[in-house]
Amino acid sequence: RSSDLAQQQQYAQACHGLASALAAGKRFAEGVKVCTTCAETLTPVVGEDHTLLSDTHMHSSQISEQAGDLIAAEAAARQALLVIRDMKGSPLVLARAHVQVGEIAEARGQDNVAEREYRLATAIYAAHPEEDLEGVDAHRRLARALLRQGFAEAAHTELDTALSALSQHGEAALQTGATRLELAQVWVAQGELQRASEEARSAIRIDSRNLGPKHLTTAGACFELGSILVRLDQTQQALEQFDLALEVFENQLGKSDAKTISVRKAREGLVGSARAPSIDCTPTRAEPRTVPQAGTSPPSTSKDSSAWTATTTRSPSSPPRTREIASGATTTTERTAGLCRSCRSQLVGSQSESGLCSSCSSSRGWRDIVVDFFGHPGSCGVVQCAPQQCCTVSQMPGASPRS
After folding, report:
1. What is the pLDDT of residue 152?
2. Which DSSP helix (H) or strand (E) runs through 347?
3. What is this structure's pTM?
């Protein structure tokens, strides 16, 4: 309770260190309590608009996020954001707080909220080119939030901005490979599979040089390239990429790791199919898309249009899509979950939950889903969908629970 600033800083640092140690021992509730006590003790001494308070709230937010309490994490992060705004301190500190709030919103599946926070952060970083690498990270996060909402063109613009900033550092910047791989995912969403494969190859080349060919990140890029090659009907090349990824993950993560299992199942499904099915990405009539402003939702589309461009996602907990099928004088409702990736037969009923095809017993699941190796859901790759063949989204085994 000393009025000496140096002692206040030492007290705050000791609290943060103790909270971190408790969190490292999985004692998250105690760590959060230490942060809360620290903030309550400092407030009467330093006031409500001090950097020590904002740092303490942010520390509490990070521990709550580690504990999986995203509601408490968001509340603490927003409290830190308010303190930073009131004290009118460094704009870069404010930008980092916006990114923290955006990360939590992203984890909660609130992509429109995450988009707004990331836009606020990128606007601040644009005025501070000396922190261009932090700005690159914010642009990449914004691109992912946009892509999950179906705005591929807007996501493409953000990644172009990120790559422009990275060009000042050459390909030695560690973020370059990851950004190239994310651009490949955007090309998939736009139906440009050949360009997607080229970007994925660039990501592998850059990561192999910067991190090594046996690095987990490089292996993840190989898996992504293999998934794209499957869609291009380049089965042999896809198998080669899956083999490279599988070798690295089995050696470094073990055969029972969820990511290793994902790669193995993808490879087994490809080997078991006589021919890897491709997805027809030839555009039909497309309505122009409107790039959303911060915090807005994608435009809705008419069900009776001859073609539509929105890529639809749904939570795993939401009910499957249904469509009306006319049969003589009666109309029945059939639950649809897309096409089997191996034999291309329709998956219906309970298959939408199990991911198993009754026709060929393939466990490769839905044909319309693109989920990258790190669990980030993408768009289906079918740029133009017929009205009776709407995209549905599930998840690959081992992916994160975000839909």
Report:
1. 94
2. strand 346-348
3. 0.61
